[in-house]
Design a protein that fits this description.
One of its GO terms (molecular function) is DNA-binding transcription factor activity. The chain has a six-stranded antiparallel β-sheet. Strands 1-2 form a two-stranded antiparallel sheet. 30% of the residues lie in helices and 33% in strands. It folds into two domains: 4-67, Winged helix-like DNA-binding domain superfamily/Winged helix DNA-binding domain (Arc Repressor Mutant, subunit A); 73-229, Chorismate lyase (3-Layer(aba) Sandwich). The protein is α+β, with helices and mostly antiparallel strands. The model has no long low-confidence stretch (mean pLDDT 90). It contains eight helices and ten strands. It is elongated, with a radius of gyration of 21 Å.
Length: 237
Amino acid sequence: MKKKYLTIYDDLVKKIQSDVWPASTLLPSENELTTEYDTSRETIRKALNLLAQNGYIHKIRGKGSVVLDINKFSFPVSGIVSFKELAQQMNQTSETIVEEISVIEDKAVTDKLQPSEQSQIWKVVRIREISGEKIILDKDFFNADYVPILSKETCQNSIYEYIENDLGLTIAYAEKEIVVEEPTQEDRECLDLEGHSNVVVIKSHVYLEDTSLFQYSESRHRPDKFRFVDFARRVKN
């Protein structure tokens, strides 16, 4: 049986998505929601915390819960999250379209990943579609010393899931650079850019637990669909 706070969460998401509470407005108070759903305050708080975690609301102490603009998806800059995990968190319909899986010889990428002489580099190009719109173009390069085989099925599902669960490797950390670029011809052909003159590109070097660099990626995003979020804490000197 589904837990009550999850049922309440699902109902609140539907109401937010249908503009019962538009962006920048306040949700009803915890007391009002407790009465509306005939449940405890603790159950309502669990539902609200899940809404906040998934980017639907922002909780302000002493004021309440403000509805966020759900037309923009929160992309965690400091985390390492697969598209499958991100899509599940956003509670949106999604699809991955595999455009290319190939073995390449590219000096720039080889210089980054430095495969052994007997190894190779995988190139994977995937279009990410969310709610019927093609808004991310992912171009990933993997060192075959660590990822020896890649199938279309794996690329459609989750390469990170395959690496961690099937290959038994631990993905540890990444160095990321965020830049704004003019769309390439490939961007225009693969994404629903709708006249946008820029794309936001996240370039990542991703490392295993033993500090081995196994992946370089360029994730190209339609700029109106994402906000890139991080958590920062000030440390006083």
